Amino acid sequence: MRVKYNRVSTLQQTGNRFTVDKDKYDLTLLDKVSGTVSFKERPKGMELLKLVDSGKVTELVVEEFSRLGRNTGDVIRTLEWLEEKEVNVFIRNLGLQSRPNGKKNPIWKMLSSVMSSLYEMELENIKERTMVGRQVYVLKGGKLGRPERSNETIQEFLQKELSQKIIKGLKKGLTTREIAKVNECSNKTVVKVSKLLDAA
Fold first, then answer.
1. Does residue 25 contact residue 80 with C-beta atoms inside 8 Å?
2. Are the CB atoms for 89 and 81 separated by under 8 Å?
3. Percent helix, strand, coil in the chain (nearest 5)?
4. Whole-structure pTM over 0.85, yes or no?
5. CB atoms within 10 A of CB 85
6. pLDDT of residue 90
7. Alpha-carbon distance 115 to 72, whole Å?
8. What does the alpha-carbon distance between residue 125 and residue 179 come to, in Å, rounded to a whole number?
9. What is the pLDDT of residues 164-192, one digit of tens each?
10. Integer Cα distance of 186 and 64 in angstroms
11. Which H, E and C letters describe 24-89, residue by residue?
């Protein structure tokens, strides 16, 4: 089975950019989750791991290393596990394969480590630029957070897409941290939804 795994960082992203890939796959999976979330904790990541465990997957295709994650250690552990299962991993933007023709690629381990480290460093740079941008915005008189005089009712807030996803996680018995990671929101938001749900 040849599987394509795609990941976008936010719930608002559609994954339309992956439509330029016209290759044929037996299955295409799309996770809408931050690259900082461990691969084994992602909804579609977990689905893929079950298929690999059952021996059904022979090749996994991703656009770039960052789709697997932005934590070097996690990406390397995932790749090593896939190697143990003899799954060929194909990175499209580099044309790089872990097991071309069923044999180990001698430079795969080195390149995957270097590229994963670069993507992790890129994430840290994005975080730093975002933080500096917010500080500059506030220094110039800008205000962060929700607009003042927001008249949204509790029911309206609980009906929002993100709130509904959080409620589903709460009903499943997931922890605040787990729900926040999967939905790419703060722990504070999860706690707020939980409190308003109890009060509603």
1. no
2. no
3. 55, 10, 35
4. no
5. 14
6. 93
7. 9
8. 25
9. 999 999 999 899 989 999 998 998 999 99
10. 27
11. CCCEEEEEECCCCCCHHHCHHHHHHHHHHHCCCCCEEEECCHHHCCCCHHHHHHHHHHHHHCCCEE
Query: Which amino acid makes up residue 82?
Result: L
Q: How many other CB atoms are found less than 10 A from the CB of residue 1? A: 15
E strand or H helix at 124:
helix 108-139
Residues comprising the chain, all counted: 200
**The CA-based dihedral angle spanning residues 24, 25, 26, 28, taken in that order and rounded to the nearest 10 degrees:** -130
Per residue in 76-127, pLDDT tens? 888 888 888 999 999 998 888 999 888 888 877 777 777 767 666 776 777 7
Tokens of 26: 């037996």
Q: Crossing angle for the helix pair 161-171 and 187-199, nearest 10 degrees?
A: 80
